[in-house]
UniProtKB/TrEMBL annotation:
Coiled coil (UniProt feature): none
Family to which the UniProt record says this protein belongs: Belongs to the non-flavoprotein flavin reductase family.
Chain ranges of the Flavin reductase like domain: 2-85
Keyword Lyase among record annotations: no
Keywords: Oxidoreductase
Signal peptide: none
The protein's name in its UniProt record: Flavin reductase (DIM6/NTAB) family NADH-FMN oxidoreductase RutF
InterPro entries for the chain: Flavin_Rdtase-like_dom, NADH-dep_flavin_reductase, Split_barrel_FMN-bd
Pfam families (UniProt xref): Flavin_Reduct
Annotated source species: Pseudonocardia parietis
Amino acid sequence: MLAESHDLACRTLSLKEGDRFAGVDWEASSGGAVFVRGSTAWLDCSVYSEVPAGDHAIVLLTIHGLRAEPEAPPLVFHGSRFRRLAAL
């Protein structure tokens, strides 16, 4: 889960063409999972199943490992823009 400071990395990773990892600070686990450094949370997962849902698919994952950085605020994308998560 990307952190608030990863807005540019998010846009780069979402590209449909070219090198999606260009300029993104990442590392890979021994099993091949890719983790973006500085993220709010890392989940080492594999696909359990996929469920069709209209023009999308819902992907269910098996989580093999995780790491959280609770001090890193999460990146939130809502209403076609990045926003800060705020508690009321």
